[in-house]
């Protein structure tokens, strides 16, 4: 990643959970900008005592939908998985989290585009009689489970963590509204951002917003945001790439 002053005088709102916000913040600082860390989501692990009973020797696939799913599962399941369980990541960030926690990555999609990409892999086209567990937070998307069931699998959820709306101070909210660029990494984080910055909503809807998928982009546009750009994948590098392109285009417009 480049190191220069492209973002000198610019502020970027980083809305990832606090434990995951430092990498993007450092990237912004390396380009001369100021990252305002304003978590729009907090992550709370659900104790393993509250997990459903799962007959692990009967499970074929264990799907992790996010890095948070990996961390929450590892915190609660502190023993080796049976050899029959094959672990699946939905994207690049989840792959890294699995590797960091010592989990084998038996399957991942060719592109880091979430559930839609995972559903294209050859192993998930015909699943008659196979048992699948999806590690997620309550209220997640149903597309993956519904499609896998249509293809013959028996699918159950393991809700290992939950998303919680933070309670920032009024000063933090005022600071968050005084930025040049916004980022949002999920529909839930965007909705929380709008709720937390409600007094400033008409202003922030005019700011450039970087999101991770077409689905989030459509939600943002329907929520009144005017300038929404989608990354190529869910990584911090991809977010920084889009921010860089927007700032370079801004500079060109000023020169014209």
Automatic annotation (TrEMBL):
It catalyses: hydroxymethylbilane = uroporphyrinogen III + H2O. GO terms for molecular function: uroporphyrinogen-III synthase activity. Residues 23-238 form the Tetrapyrrole biosynthesis uroporphyrinogen III synthase domain. Keywords: Lyase, Porphyrin biosynthesis. Pathway: Porphyrin-containing compound metabolism; protoporphyrin-IX biosynthesis; coproporphyrinogen-III from 5-aminolevulinate: step 3/4. Its EC number is 4.2.1.75. SUPFAM superfamilies: HemD-like. InterPro entries: 4pyrrol_syn_uPrphyn_synt_sf, 4pyrrol_synth_uPrphyn_synth, UROS/Hem4. It comes from the Bacteria. One of its GO terms (biological process) is protoporphyrinogen IX biosynthetic process. Belongs to the uroporphyrinogen-III synthase family. Catalyzes cyclization of the linear tetrapyrrole, hydroxymethylbilane, to the macrocyclic uroporphyrinogen III. This is Uroporphyrinogen-III synthase.
């Amino acid at each position: 990643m480049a190191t220069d002053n492209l973002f000198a005088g610019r502020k970027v709102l980083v809305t990832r959970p606090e434990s995951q916000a430092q990498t993007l913040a450092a990237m912004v600082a390396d380009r001369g900008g100021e990252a305002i860390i304003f978590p729009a989501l907090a992550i709370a692990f659900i104790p393993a005592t509250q997990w459903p009973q799962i007959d692990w020797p009967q499970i074929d696939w264990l799907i992790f939908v996010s890095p948070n799913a990996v961390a929450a599962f590892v915190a609660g399941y502190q023993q080796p998985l049976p050899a029959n369980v094959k672990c699946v990541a939905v994207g690049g960030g989840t792959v890294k989290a699995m590797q960091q926690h010592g989990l084998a990555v038996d399957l991942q999609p060719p592109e880091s585009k979430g559930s839609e990409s995972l559903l294209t892999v050859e192993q998930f086209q015909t699943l008659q009689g196979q048992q699948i567990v999806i590690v997620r937070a309550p209220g997640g998307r149903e597309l993956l489970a519904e499609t896998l069931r249509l293809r013959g699998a028996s699918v159950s959820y393991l809700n290992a963590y939950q998303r919680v709306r933070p309670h920032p101070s009024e000063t933090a909210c005022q600071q968050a509204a005084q930025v040049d660029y916004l980022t949002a990494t999920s529909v839930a984080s965007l909705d929380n951002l709008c709720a937390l910055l409600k007094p400033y909503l008409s202003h922030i809807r005019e700011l450039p917003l970087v999101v991770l998928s077409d689905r989030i982009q459509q939600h943002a546009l329907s929520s009144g945001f005017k300038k929404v750009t989608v990354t190529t994948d869910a990584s911090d590098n991809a977010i920084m790439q889009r921010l860089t392109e927007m700032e370079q285009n801004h500079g060109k417009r000023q020169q014209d």
